[in-house]
Amino acid sequence: MKLPYTQVPPLTKEEIEIFLKDAKTARLCSFNKNGTIHAVPLWFKYGNGHIIIASPEHSQKTRNILRNPNVTLLVDIEAPKIQGVIVYGKAKVHTDDWTEEFLSLTTKYMPKNEAEKWNESLSKIANWVKITIIPEHIASFDYEKDDEFKKIMG
């Protein structure tokens, strides 16, 4: 039996907010110089309607964003509870000091004392910049709400 539509039911606005605040890993897509897509998994923090990530100053993603700020960010949960949020937006690279915000980002993933050591170690290998992603459009999907899909999958 084929599904009668092409779009899985979305998450609600409230579910999207919670999903983005709680999720651990995102995949950021930016455009390489030759037009191909550069996709990387990364840590992120969501709040106040935007997303922040950390990136080495001279990384491919940073260079791509400086050249073309259009990005796509995918945050998802794999099977069996397939859910996700796709953020289409503009990214901006900030080179000013963001030590406290960087610590806030990494404390999402580990206790503060470990995050301080982590950030200190990272700072020894590269200059880290803050990248802010301002969403222009957000799409989502939630297979848990799809009764036809659940029926077919058992």
In short:
The chain is of the alpha+beta class and 154 residues long. The protein has helices at residues 13-22, 60-67, 99-106, 112-125, 147-153; strands at residues 26-31, 37-42, 45-47, 50-56, 70-77, 83-94, 128-142.
Written overview of the protein:
This protein has 154 residues and is of the alpha+beta class. It has one domain: Electron Transport, Fmn-binding Protein, Chain A (Pnp Oxidase, Chain A, Roll), CATH 2.30.110. Helix content is 31%, strand content 37%. A hairpin with a 5-residue loop joins β5 and β6. The longest helix has 14 residues, at 112-125. The model has no long low-confidence stretch (mean pLDDT 93).
The coarse overall form would be: globular
| CATH second-level architecture | Roll
Question: Regarding quaternary structure, how should these chains be classified?
Answer: single chain
Q: Biggest sheet, strands in spatial order?
A: 2-1-5-6-7-4-3
Elements, N to C (H/E)? HEEEEHEEHHEH
Helix content bin: 25-40%
Task: Please outline the major beta sheet.
Answer: 7 strands, antiparallel
CATH fold name: Pnp Oxidase, Chain A
Unreliable segments (pLDDT under 50, ≥5 consecutive)? Answer: none
% residues in beta strands: 35-45%
For the CA atoms, what is the radius of gyration? 17 Å
Number of helices: 5
Give keywords:
single chain; 154 residues; alpha+beta; Pnp Oxidase, Chain A; 7 strands; globular
